[in-house]
Amino acid sequence: MSTAAPVRAHRRRRRDRWMPARLAAAVVVSLVTLFPLYWMVVVALTSRSELLGGTLRLVPRELTLDNFRRVLDAFPVAAWVGNSVAISLTVALLSVTVSMLAGYAFAQLRFPGSTALFLLTVATVMIPLQVIMVPLFRIVTSMGLFGSYWAVILPTAASGFGAFLARQFVLAIPRELIDAARVDGAGHLRIFRSIVLPLSRPLLAVLFFMTLLSSWNDLAWPLVALQDNALYTLPIGLLYLQGQLGSDYGGTMAFAIITVAPMVALFLVAQRYFVEGFARTGIR
Amino acid sequence: MSTVPAATAATAPPGVRAPDPPRRGRRGPRRGAVKEALAAYGFLAPGLVLLGTFVFVPLAGAAALSLQRTNGFGDGVWVGLDNYARLFTDPVFWRATLNTVLFTLVVTPGSMALGLGAAVLLNSVLPARGLFRSVLILPMAVSGVATALVGVLVFDQNSGFANAVLRALGLPGVDWQSGGTAAFVTVVLVTLWWRTGFNMLIYLAGLQGIGRETLEAATLDGAGPWQRFRYVVVPMLGPSSFFLVVMNVIYSFQVFDIVFVLTGGGPRNATTVLVTYAYDNGFVTRDQGYAATIGVFLLVVSLAFTWLRWRTSRTKDLVG
Predict the structure, then answer these.
(1) Is A97 on the interface with B (CB under 8 A)?
(2) For chain B, what is the domain count?
(3) pLDDT at residue A165 above 60?
(4) Domain-embedded: residue B21
(5) pLDDT tens-digit profile of B46-63?
(6) Host domain of residue B151
(7) A164, A228, A273, B154: which has the fewest C-beta neighbours closer than 10 Å?
(8) Given CB atoms, is B146 within the 8 Å cutoff of chain A?
(9) Cβ-defined contact of A101 to B135 (cutoff 8 Å)
(10) Is residue B119 part of a domain?
């Protein structure tokens, strides 16, 4: 104690000397990170004529919502938002459920083939979509899913990574709790519902949020599976709209903001839980 | 409670350590064993059915397709290993392979170094630390398409912001679209912007696992800031680094969104990577057998890398 105190005081003094430098570094890094997003907003709020005039300024003189109006008038934005909400929420819910069920089995149950099945499940992380895209397209078509949300939802609902995380987390649940419940005659489903799920809340939040985010932002598979304009999710809509608008950067950026804003807002609100959960799920 | 998964996640790369089912001190068949196995298959059924139907069956399909010459969506003709032979003489394939490797070799260490630097910075005493953290992980919330479109805007070689800044500084503008190297640089820069936050997040979690006492003990032993970083912090972050190497390499091998939207693989295939080349073959030129061949090649390389990485790390764990 008596030696630690001076050391700490000493350290604190040294830290203070460097603090302005660290603060400056943090500000610079933050500005670099924010700039592309700021630029997106500036371009979206700048009138078309000013954009064409090439007199864009770092701080625009005049702001307008014309780009947003034009995009909202010309494209089925509301339908695309609805598609994205429906698809990403369903995928997230399904994926969390499937991952937790698998995680419980891999972590707490003994059965023949557990190692092989676990390795197979996790190895799917390494399979790029583009490898299986063509046969997958044929399967989805032959199942009659083509032209519905399910064409996107079902192929993306199971995640090897999610099952891996769930297993890691469920492994850490004290065995005594589970054994005690079993002695009391609880079945596996009961144990899963009343012990594993409640204790896994931080993980559930992380899994749900991660899946929601990646489904909302997904490009490659929806690009193949959704060929009907009315079914587009927001990223596909954005790509389509950019193709239609060409060099109308103002309109493209206005719509880009619409596609990005919900997740950015959610991120800002929920990130504390997300980051905490991340640390507690053992990804480090 | 959280130390157990941390340790396991740390040493086990995805898919390599066999799950060791909890032992209950009994050997041989148990009375509840059959029931337990049935319950396990029940719990696994939804995931296995989905992965089986939408990953493994198509994967087998892709392997079969890679042995066929195809035309559109009709039935293919079996041609043995012709598609694989074609890989060797296809300059675009080699270019795509080179680009994929190059991209991986730049983005993996690049985003990890930036992420580590940011994590150390934002783990130190700093006013408004929480705000800075929020800002740095914000790109994670932005879709690849939107990210790439902002990249298109910033790096437009005629009207983009990047060249405006260069010209204002009296420098010549860069041919971000027509120059191959410059286009590749834009893909890397945009990716680093997008991916650094994730790396920082993982490193931050790792840093928070290093106790203050450990660092103070090192200070008492006379370690300076650099020595503390190099000989205490970096080794203790080993598990985080391992996880990130695997994640970043898997990501880099599969990079699609940014390339597809930002450059479309151009100019003249300077930014074509294996997955965009496979996509082009599968859905643009409709040469699906060949697309599958490229995919199988990529998958084999990914598996080989993971196996190697696991081997080397397991040896390290045993030694250390």
Answers:
(1) yes
(2) 1
(3) yes
(4) no
(5) 999 999 999 999 999 999
(6) 93-319
(7) A228
(8) yes
(9) no
(10) yes
